[in-house]
Amino acid sequence: MLDPARLSIHQVTLLQQCSTPQFVDALMRNGVPCTSVWREKVREYGVEQTARLLADNGVALSGYCWGGLVTSPDRSEAAKARDEVRRALDEAAAVKAPCLVFVAGGVAPRDKNIADARARALDGVAELIPHARSVGVKIALEPLHPMTCATRSVLSTVKLANAWCDSLSAEDIVGIAVDTYAVWWDPDIEAEIARAGKRICSFHVSDWLVDTQDLRFDRGMMGDGVIDLPALRRWVEAAGYDGYVEVEIFSQRNWWQRDPDEVIGVIKDRMQTAV
Amino acid sequence: MLDPARLSIHQVTLLQQCSTPQFVDALMRNGVPCTSVWREKVREYGVEQTARLLADNGVALSGYCWGGLVTSPDRSEAAKARDEVRRALDEAAAVKAPCLVFVAGGVAPRDKNIADARARALDGVAELIPHARSVGVKIALEPLHPMTCATRSVLSTVKLANAWCDSLSAEDIVGIAVDTYAVWWDPDIEAEIARAGKRICSFHVSDWLVDTQDLRFDRGMMGDGVIDLPALRRWVEAAGYDGYVEVEIFSQRNWWQRDPDEVIGVIKDRMQTAV
User: CB count, 10 Å around CB of B87?
Assistant: First the structure.
């Protein structure tokens, strides 16, 4: 049983059905207290407009998603990418999100050097810390599934996120986002969640479908796959996390095709039975 | 530069173009000294017939692919699966393959318990050891990519394979197959390959394409993706491996559609420039 006051539904879960106002309406209609907004949608509707809409409706924010992709070996490209993250941090502050979900970036096909890409990502985070502090938005390092390593994130495990946090020594402003979909397979996950402790500033749930057909947009509803979600929730809570449980389902073939109220209804049910 | 005498081309690389005799002909025509055969193809053509064909043509074997899927929580299903692995070990011995590539199996949707699935897989390997010894075929534990964890392999890292080997204490008959496609993203891979040392009994190469479109059948030709293959080869060789370098490319949209001689020609070229 999850306290309904801890439910957050990520905007991406209704990405294709709803404009930002329609999405906020759907949350209100269904008594969902919190969301994490999707940057593309925010920029489409307008940052100030989104901030006002959320505030007027009393919707809390569990995150701003996302900024990053700072691994380019080209110095000027990397500098541009960091500037873009600074803008994302500003926007996160404007909508009053506590953290920006940070997606490291992939491996450059020209150098094929994953160790260098990881080093550049870590340096990139270090350079972003002063700006994050100045606007009061945490950088939530989100390990993504290894299948996204080439293009989206060389940060592939919570173990590596912990190592980055150790090296950054910026516990006040750099945290870790644990996404069940990205980490459930990891033999070290229980230990690394315990090690992360209070670094965990964001917790995302969805499920891994046995017949997964796409590397990004085929996530399952909690309970429909093979992830032991209650165990993962127990571990992050034992580590000290007591914040929102954020539902983040990218689902081209199923949930993005359905009525918003139906999707939210199923989510609310599954939060009680499968998480 | 790879010594051409160390080239092995896995039968699956020409899975759709060639029957087993056509495949062996193609190897002969192109001076490829070694292969790893695909169990389904062997059974289709006949085990004895395949053994004779390979022997008559002087084709060496680097492996027999595959056996496993022993993680069922149902005792009788698991026992059946182990019997099937014993048959695969017999077949591997018949074709004179030095090892059977072992694919652990996935997570049962009914119990969603990955820790238990891993424990059952390890127990399953332990039970298979006497038979493997009796027929003189190594069990090559192959960690598969975490994206296959639900259905094919809860053995997701070389670190976990090392832990299993530590616990089995059967270095004479249980080894590790390192597949570049499965492990390239792993932050611990260099250290775990070093730790594996002489356990490494099989080394597979292919590449990870930036625009990967399928979880199983979209592997790239060496050089076409982002994997630093020379680094991985250097590490396995530093660990003591000096056996065949086995090319294993599942490629529905590209290489399975091409002429066998063209595919082998590209492979031979890339082995000199990209591995």
Answer: 14
Q: Which domains does chain B have, with CATH numbers?
A: 35-241 (3.20.20.150)
- For every residue of chain A, DSSP letters joined together read ---GGGEEEEGGGGTTT--HHHHHHHHHHTT--EEEEEHHHHHHH-HHHHHHHHHHTT-EEEEEEEEE----SSHHHHHHHHHHHHHHHHHHHHTT-SEEEEE-B---TTT--HHHHHHHHHHHHHHHHHHHHHHT-EEEE----GGGTTTTBS---HHHHHHHHHHH--TTTEEEEEEHHHHTT-TTHHHHHHHHGGGEEEEEE-B--TT---SSSB-B-TTSSS--HHHHHHHHHHTT--S-EEE---BTTTGGGS-HHHHHHHHHHHHHHT-
* pLDDT, tens digit, 9 for 90 and up, residues A132-164: 999 999 999 999 999 999 999 999 999 999 999
Residues A171-189 have a mean pLDDT of: 98
Contact between A199 and A171 (Cβ < 8 Å): yes
Mean pLDDT, range A85-111, rounded to an integer: 97
Q: How confident is the model at residue B1 (pLDDT cuts 50, 70, 90)?
A: confident
**A-B Cβ pairs (cutoff 8 Å, strict):** 91
Please give the mean pLDDT across all residues of chain B: 97
Rg for chain A (alpha carbons), in Å?
A: 18
Residue A9 makes CB contacts below 8 A (sequence gap 6+) with A27, A32, A34, A35, A246, A247, A264, A267
Q: Which of B113, B212, B226 sits opposite A215 (nearest CB)?
A: B212
pLDDT at residue A1 in the model: 79
Residue range B30-38: mean pLDDT, rounded: 98
Give the whole-angstrom CA distance, residue A269 versus residue A260: 14
Query: Which residue of A151, A160, A226 is in closest CB contact with B109?
Result: A226
Distances (CA, A) of A18 to A257, A259, A262: 11, 10, 13
ipTM of the complex: 0.96
C-alpha to C-alpha distance for B240 and B236, rounded to whole angstroms: 7
Tens of pLDDT along B116-151? 999 999 999 999 999 999 999 999 999 999 999 999
- pLDDT, tens digit, 9 for 90 and up, residues B188-206: 999 999 999 999 999 999 9
φ, ψ dihedrals at B121, nearest 5°: -65, -45
Is the CB of B147 less than 8 angstroms away from the CB of A228?
Answer: no
Q: Are strands B7-10 and A34-38 parallel, antiparallel or unpaired?
A: unpaired
pLDDT tens, position by position, A77-93: 999 999 999 999 999 99
Cβ atoms within 10 Å of A112's Cβ, excluding its own: 22
Which of A226, A234, A275 has the most B C-beta neighbours within 10 Å, making it the best mutation to test the interface with B? A226
B72, B112, B151, best to mutate vs chain A, most A CBs in 10 Å: B112
State the average pLDDT over residues B152-158: 98
